[in-house]
Design brief:
There is one protein chain. By secondary structure, the protein is mainly β. The protein has one domain: Rieske Iron-sulfur Protein (3-layer Sandwich), CATH 2.102.10.10. 0% of the residues lie in helices and 49% in strands. The protein contains no helices and ten strands. It has a four-stranded antiparallel beta sheet, with no helix packed on it. β3 and β4 (37-42) form a beta hairpin. The relative contact order is 0.26. It binds FE2/S2 (inorganic) cluster (FES). Residues 45, 47-48, 50, 64, 66-67, 69, 82-83 line the site of FE2/S2 (inorganic) cluster.
């Protein structure tokens, strides 16, 4: 598994409460500013294949629009049913107003 830092947004694109989705090498990522912290997670619910971008940020969680499970943006863990598997989380950093995420890809 190799890792790489990839620029995904400018900080101006992500004011508090905003999300952006990006696709990198066929993988969908959701970037979110929740309460001033930038998070990156899979843009796919672990319950069914639906974009979490269609949901909404609640505190530091993301709520799926289909059946309502919330996931921690920090840990990826589901907070209630029906989802029972975590979503992937990715490190983020800000470098001169640019948002980067650490992606993982299979060799
Ligand atoms: S598809 Fe997300 S909770 Fe069911």
């Amino acid at each position: 598994m190799t890792e790489q830092w990839v620029e995904v947004a400018t900080i101006d694109e992500l004011p508090i409460g905003k999300m952006k989705r990006v696709e990198i090498e066929g993988h969908r990522y959701l970037i979110a500013n929740a309460e001033g912290n930038i998070y990156a997670v899979d843009d796919q619910c672990s319950h069914e294949d639906i974009s979490l971008y269609l949901g909404c940020i609640q505190g530091e969680n993301i709520k799926c629009s289909l059946h309502g499970s919330r996931f921690s943006l920090k840990t990826g863990e589901p907070l209630e049913a029906p989802a029972d598997e975590p979503i992937g989380t990715y490190e983020t950093r800000i470098n001169v107003k640019k948002v980067l995420i650490k992606t993982r890809k299979k060799p």
